[in-house]
Amino acid sequence: MLRKHRLVILGLLCALLVGGIISQAIAAEAASQVEYVIFIKTSDVDDAGTDSDLRMSLCGTKGCTGWEYVDDPSRDDREQGRTDQHVRRWTDVGTLTQVKIYQEWNGSWWRLNSIRVDYNGKKASFGYDRWVDRGTWIHIDADR
């Protein structure tokens, strides 16, 4: 009987230890997430807007985020002369150095003016002001 109680107590201690380790891992993961506020500005020239889906990856001194869609299904994104705002919680990639964009095939050409990202009290700007064709990958270095 005493042995059975010892095993139960040992099992409870192990569960507490493992639970603590898991809690620490979850807390560490949450701490490595950053809120990025992304402003995507479409140029104000004729036919600059597009209905294409857009994927983005942010790169910095610690690596890159994964590729994520930056579309708002509740509104028409990337219209001529408009700046769209998207808020995402992604992995902390350090000081931003580059933004990568992929425009899907399901729309028209798009005239991207610029992208600005606010994060951790910092701002990173990425000027472009060129046409982006459908099915195109572009990499834009941060403005200096």
From TrEMBL:
What is the annotated signal peptide range for this record?
1-27
InterPro entries referenced in this protein's UniProt entry, alphabetically = Inner_ear_hair_cell_LOXHD, PLAT/LH2_dom, PLAT/LH2_dom_sf
**Pfam families named among the record's database cross-references:** PLAT
Q: Which key words are in the record?
A: Signal
The residues covered by the PLAT domain are 34-144
| PANTHER family xrefs | LIPOXYGENASE HOMOLOGY DOMAIN-CONTAINING PROTEIN 1, PROTEIN CBG12474
Q: Quote the protein name from its UniProt record.
A: PLAT domain-containing protein
